[in-house]
Amino acid sequence: MTFSRGRNTLFSGLHFSVQPGQAIWLQGKNGQGKTSVLKLAMRLMQPDAGVIRWGSAFDDGGAPTYIGHLNGQSVDLTVLESLTFSARMHSVRVSVEAVAMALKRTSLYAHRNRLVHSLSQGERRRLALTRLLLNKSALWVLDEPLDALDTASTVLVMRLIEEQVDTGGAVLMSSHIPFHMPNLQVLSLTSPTAS
Amino acid sequence: MTSLFRFYTFAAPSRFYALATRSVPWLYALAMMSALIALYVGLLLAPTDVTQGDAYRIIYIHVPAAWMSMVLYLALAGWSVVGWATNAKLAYALSRAIAPTGAAFTVLALWTGALWGKPTWGTWWVWDARLTSELILLFLYLGYLAMVEGADDRQRGERAGALLALVGVVNIPIIYFSVRWWNTLHQGATISMTAAPKMANTMLQGMLLMTVAFWAYAFAVIFARTSRLILEREADSSWVRAFVQSREER
Amino acid sequence: MSFARFQAIVARDLLSFRRNPARSLFPLAFFLIACSLFPLGVGAETNTLRQIAPGVIWVSALLSVVSSLNTIYLNDYIDGSLEQMCIGQRFPIDVVFAKTVVHWLLNGCALLLGAPLIGLMFGMRLHSIEIMSLALLLGTPVLSMFGSLGAALTLGYRSSHVLQLLVILPLCIPVLIFGAGAVSAVDAGLSAQAYLSLLGALFLFSLVTTPIASAAALRSSS
Asked: Would you state the pLDDT for residue A8?
């Protein structure tokens, strides 16, 4: 696909696919269009030319789980309400136990009745990550997932991504923080035309 | 079929630019000539009106201007539809180029309407159905211009403006109908612009000639503006760079 | 496009409102203040006030609804939840419907409470106030729907407040004309049926056309 912002063609002829069991790390300097690629993949934006196709896993109307720069959660809700809302929007049924388990994994269980407003940046990010556990999407699209996280949370994210890949899911992410994982594919946007 | 093919070749910005810049001087010439003939017919040949005297002659500008303002809005909306359907940048550029001219004709129609009102009925403004609708049309043009020119992201502004133009066009019959209804209710003025003088043949000819002049002028101005927009937008492309280079070498 | 999602969004927004109800009283306060400015400007002569009352109430209602449009999408746009809600849909119509319904519940409905009060202050007769309330009931949803369209079109623009006014007010003129006309007709002893039918027609028209346009506008603004 080809995409431009204003006068600049960010990239053209970009072509790639994400298969189950794959993790793809999108690399590139700031302003090269990593966020745009992720948004295009989520079909939140239209490319100037080219097609985005979602695989059969999403034929029933589901969608990949996306965590962008913004956490995507309303500050007026409590942690629990935020998660149940997100699950309902993804048409996923979640039991109370599943929510509790997910919150325990991301160490937010103690905060489950607090308003998102009162959480710190790192905690809000962890809440966004909890969505990944609950929605159980076949594909995760993550924009800088390690941003604003402390060491413990960083380790948690890496482990979650490994688990997703091991269980046959897929991950497409961008990160300027180095990522170490077996079988990690790197896609670079260092030139306007990427292969 | 070949004519359809030829039409599409002009969808390429560079070819359109070539066509547009070549036609502009001719269009201006045509506009000039028609305007002069129209003014001759309207001011000198056409008879003096029985009830309104010579002041009615402003109609030769007022009515064509009003027609143009409405037709141009339709054209703007039409190109917006094409733009949404085909994502062709040229269609959006045309819509953008039409808007200021359309707004200008609307202002002209309103202003000449006021000038007509003063000597004929004694007031500078008459809240009759047609003038009020024309005023609302001006607001629609201004809204479109504000949306498109006020956007930080040009592409987004164009798409939003196109959608607004479409919504406007669909709502215009409703707005016009409601304004006519409103006008018959609030019986303020028995004055109405619709009570225009009976059209003698020469009067009609004068108005039609002026309409031709306005059309040619509109085409000229819109083509010129579109060409400028295209140049701006395609500034990085090869044909523009080659064009600028050849200009510099001259 | 699913009812479950529509329900989820409405429930969430009403929950937000319950947590911060004061914020939502601003439009009603604005409406009351705006209406009260007219006697101060025009003079408090009873007949004049009774004559201008329908127009004043409708114009103030229009301005009040339009000035609260930012709340429809902007907050969610800023924190990224709008993006999340629109994922996976070509035309996020359930988002548009949910947001518009909530906007009407919190703004248009509030006006239904304030308008009779103003009517009394302007010396309107009881029957006129009834008809006006009915007209507002039919007309304010239309204002919310067009407003939703304007808000979606101008999402993220700088100084979007003024732009919204400029964009939406011309489209809302028919509602104003028929709504105020209904009350004037009743004042003059005629039946308001034609006006109310026209308002109903406008309601149906905007119900059918504006959601898809708003959804398309939301799509192109992300």
From this structure: 66
Number of CB atoms found within 10 A of residue B206's CB: 27
Is the per-residue pLDDT at B196 higher than 70?
no
Q: How many domains does chain B divide into?
A: 1
B177 is in which domain, residue-wise?
59-241
Q: To which residue do tokens 């045509």 refer?
A: B30
**Inter-chain contact C5–A45, Cβ cutoff 8 Å?**
no
CB < 8 Å from A in window 75-94 of C? 75-76, 78-81, 83-88
- CA geometry: angle at C36 spanning C35 and C40, to 5°? 125
B57-91 tens-digit pLDDT = 788 888 899 999 999 999 999 999 999 888 888 89
**Residue B171 placed within a domain:** yes
CB contact under 8 A, B178 and C178: yes
Are C12 and A85 in contact (CB < 8 Å)? yes
Whether residues A7 and B236 touch (CB distance < 8 A) is answered with yes
Chain B, window 118-137: residues with a beta carbon less than 8 angstroms from a chain C beta carbon: 136
Residue C99 sits at φ, ψ, to 5 deg, of -65, -40
Q: Which of C52, C160, C171, C205 to mutate to test the interface with B (most CBs of B within 10 A)?
A: C171
Residue C182's domain comprises 3-221
B4 within domain boundaries: no
Query: ipTM of the predicted structure?
Result: 0.86
Q: What band does A192 get if pLDDT is binned at 50, 70 and 90?
A: very low
CB burial of residue C51 (10 Å; 0-12, 13-18, 19+): middle
Residue at B11 is within a domain: no
Q: Of B86-95, B187-196, C11-20, C128-137, which has the strongest mean pLDDT?
A: C128-137
C-alpha atoms less than 13 angstroms from C-alpha of C216 in its C-beta half-sphere: 15
With contacts defined as CB-CB under 8 Å, which chain A residues touch C81? 72-74
Determine the Cα–Cα distance for residues C182 and C197; give it in Å rounded to an integer: 10
Q: Is the dihedral of CA C203, C61, B176, C181 positive or negative?
A: positive
- Residue B41 in any domain: the answer is no
The amino acid that residue B226 corresponds to is T
State the pLDDT at residue B65: 93
- The CA distance from C100 to the nearest CA of chain B, in Å, is 18
* Dihedral sign computed on CA atoms, order C108, C110, C116, C118: negative
Q: What percent of chain B has pLDDT over 90?
A: 27
> Which of the four pLDDT bands, split at 50, 70 and 90, describes residue A169?
confident
Q: Is the pLDDT of residue B191 over 60?
A: no
Q: Which domains does chain A have, with CATH numbers?
A: 12-64+137-195 (3.40.50.300), 74-136 (no CATH)
Residues 28-47 of C with CB under 8 A from A: none
Mean pLDDT value across residues B215-229: 90
Give the CA radius of gyration of chain C: 18
Is the pTM of the predicted complex or chain greater than 0.90?
Answer: no
Total number of domains in chain C: 1
Across the B:C interface, residue pairs with CB atoms under 8 Å apart total 74
